[in-house]
């Protein structure tokens, strides 16, 4: 059994997609981010960055030793699950493709994901009188990353030779292009790749998980100081019940 600590966001979808694709028995634990569940001491012990997703593997491989294994950060989670199950990653002997996989995992967590997250912030949650510069800045960066992805997919169906954790990690932030104010019209290869992944039953199940609990702009900078304007004080141990 694996506990998934989750919210229905692009980053949360990454881990849910992998769990569904692998057919692993897991228990989703919905975190109410707008209420501060992410700052609870029990969750901080699993995810010290107070972010979702995170997992707790209660049945790790023997080489991990006794006790459950916590994993935080979406890229680390997908890599851990791929190595645990032997699914959706290149063979260990294929060093060049393994190298490609690591490059695209790092590209996602260092480029596409952060740019998409900032674009989402200014598109959906920033005060109306302060959003224009940030929105235009990050829309440009988001489109630049779509261009990188378009080039990669020019002569291939998947990021690597086959469908892999690289596709699962990159897909969610491309999936929500339209709600972010972006368009895939100039990126037909990305649009086709997005459609192929979206059609997978495991992906559909993951996206539908707790769908009714999506924020959808209800909690904004000007009405929720739990989600926004966080400081280091948020991560300090608290008396009583705390959260992410």
From TrEMBL:
Residues 94-219 form the GST C-terminal domain. InterPro entries: Glutathione-S-Trfase_C-like, Glutathione-S-Trfase_C_sf, Glutathione_S-Trfase, Glutathione_S-Trfase_N, GST_C, Thioredoxin-like_sf. CDD domains: GST_N_Ure2p_like (cd03048). Gene3D superfamilies: 1.20.1050.10, Glutaredoxin. It holds the Pfam family GST_C. Residues 1-89 form the GST N-terminal domain. This is Glutathione binding-like protein. It comes from Sedimentitalea todarodis.
